[in-house]
Amino acid sequence: MIEVKNLVKKYGGHLAVDNLNFTVEKGQIYGFLGPNGAGKSTTMNIITGYIASTEGTVTVDGHDILEEPEAAKKCIGYLPEQPPLYFDMTVAEYLNFAAELKQVEKPKRKEMIQEVMEMTGITDVGGRVIKNLSKGYRQRVGLAQALIGFPEILILDEPTVGLDPKQMIEIRELIKSLSKNHTVILSSHILSEVSAVCDYIMIISKGKLVASDTPENLSKEMAGAQKLSLLVKGSPQEVESAVGNIHQVSSFCCEESEQEGVLKVSLEAEPEADVREEIFFAMADRKLPILELMTTSMSLEDVFLELTEGGEEPEGEEKGRRKSMFGTRLKKTPEEELEEEEENHAGNL
Ligand SMILES: Nc1ncnc2c1ncn2[C@@H]1O[C@H](COP(=O)(O)OP(=O)(O)OP(=O)(O)O)[C@@H](O)[C@H]1O
């Protein structure tokens, strides 16, 4: 459906997109995941024909976005990070305006608008002025606008940013339901969102594609090596001589713990190797008591952090409004937030 080849975008001397290559197949939900400034919006703006690339090509359903922009753009519905809404229009007026812009034939407009309003759950607010709607409903209107013309591909830039947890869940459900008939590409800096909604994740860091796979495969691939963390009573030399004889240990390090004479030992074994018993006997032979032993596997969150390490880019005023990489997860569970927000949301619409 979409083929991106050797895509480069430079803003002056700044390389925002660095030789991206990927293809998007029909009927799946793809997630662009990356920290702020990774190049997600820039890539989406190039795919949708909003801005030109410095190098490389984008073809949409076989149409080059620069050579055949009309044909390529007809296949795409775009919801930018800031939905292009006219706040003084009613929902129905705005969608009619969007249909005019998209050159939907006049006799077909009314029916199409009704259909997209049903699909996005905004039929009841068709006569309401957009500025009086809650943010969640405005986002639905933005999605409805993207759906006008029934394009095969929907490109959604941070579709849940700024929504409360209940609205987030609703919009995610809506996106999932739209994916039955559309190919969806969405961008997000929130890992939990992308892994909850997308079939396929593309992790972008500093303009480069650093990983792309299903959420399950990404964690599996990266979780190859077994990691152990131990508390051992002994000296670094004694621990080193015990661990040093175990061939399947690929790396290890010791540091002092809060308890005197007790070391924190972190070690990594080769993929598929289980070295727990060997560690136990090696320490026991040298009379080094193991006070604690834990295996740690790599979560998708660890994978993301490792791949995008240093990917966030503080920049002047951007610093102040930086979003958390894991959004709500760092603060409270979505369930806790839901409970808290449900009451506030009730009167929002
Ligand atoms: N019009 C522009 N002029 C100059 N630099 C730009 C412009 N637009 C984006 N950039 C820079 O290009 C890089 C990529 O920005 P982009 O908006 O694509 O990232 P992003 O991954 O979408 O981030 P965010 O989640 O913050 O929107 C950033 O360093 C940004 O500052």
From TrEMBL:
Protein name as annotated: ABC transporter ATP-binding protein
Record region (Disordered): 308-349
Domain ABC transporter, residue spans: 2-231
Pfam families: ABC_tran (PF00005)
Family under the similarity heading: Belongs to the ABC transporter superfamily.
UniProt entry tagged with the keyword Signal: no
Keywords assigned: ATP-binding, Nucleotide-binding, Transport
InterPro entries named among the record's database cross-references: AAA+_ATPase, ABC_transporter-like_ATP-bd, P-loop_NTPase
Highest taxon above the source species: Bacteria
CDD domains xrefs: ABC_DR_subfamily_A
GO molecular function: ATP binding; ATP hydrolysis activity
